[in-house]
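Sequence and structure are kept together here, with a separate record for every protein. An example record follows, reproduced without changes.
>
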Amino acid sequence: MSDLKAYLASKYMSGPKAEAILARSSDPTIKKRKKKPKNEDYPSGSGSASASSGVVLKDEEDEWNRRTGADDLDLEGDDAPVIGKDVATFRKSNSAWNKVAASTSIPLKSSDITPKTEPVDPEDESAVAAASPPKQVTKRKGGLRTAAQMQEEAALAAAAAKSPSPEPDADRPDPTKTVHRDASGRVLDVEALKEEARKAEAEEKRKEKEREEWGKGITQRKEREERAQLEKEMITKKVERYADDVGMNRDMRDVERWNDPAAEFLTKKKRKGPRRPVYRGPYPPNRFGIPPGFRWDGVDRSTGFEKKFFQYQNAAVRAEVEANAWSMEDM
């Protein structure tokens, strides 16, 4: 069986266990302890099979392991090898760490064993400290204290344990504000809609007031404004008026009267506002009395119908006049 262990250790195993098995098989000084029967192998709990009286309980898995020789490789229990003076002892430890490389007998320096730590930049250290502020630890007071002091301390600890609420952000919308949407899902600005409604209402009131003024008469309103302005100017003027008063003479001259005999050659009509230019020269007559445009060069480019129309009218009138004269010639 030892040859089987050595074969399996050399072909399929590695590490301290394999080295121990190979050392055991190669060194004749190593002694193997005899396996003693365990008490749990017998129902009565005694160390011998003859002392048992009753049904023997056997595990099929243990029987299968005995047939296949799996128990022969139990190197951690009673079957562990007894190592001589020159051979190290290998036993399984309870450590949960996994060994990456095989153990070496070369002594290592303390600098190689301790992990190397890279120097930390003071700027990075300050940035990390600013990003994660240290947690403040409140010290508890010792000695005799009253119930009120203990309640106050507990309230302060509970308030410190609660996370402070974040400061309200100005750019962040109010979560409690109602969001209005139209049929298509578009968000509606209620304040903008109210402002537009107020502007539309003010514009409608202004137009209604203008329509009322138009109904009263624009000319009458203008006359009232001029009269109010004149009355305001009369406050600063003197009471007496003379014949050489320029303002009075101008106002009397501007008044138009229907029976004024000198209106044709004394008065000049005022031109109020811009006027369109008109053609000032002579032009051939037409049935409707429409003058040509002010840019007309004097050339008649019509079909001559208007000229013939007036010629026929004049010929008819002349024939009628001649006929009347001939009929009354003998009288």
User: Anything to note?
Assistant: Confidence is low (pLDDT under 50) at residues 43-52. The longest helix spans residues 190-216.
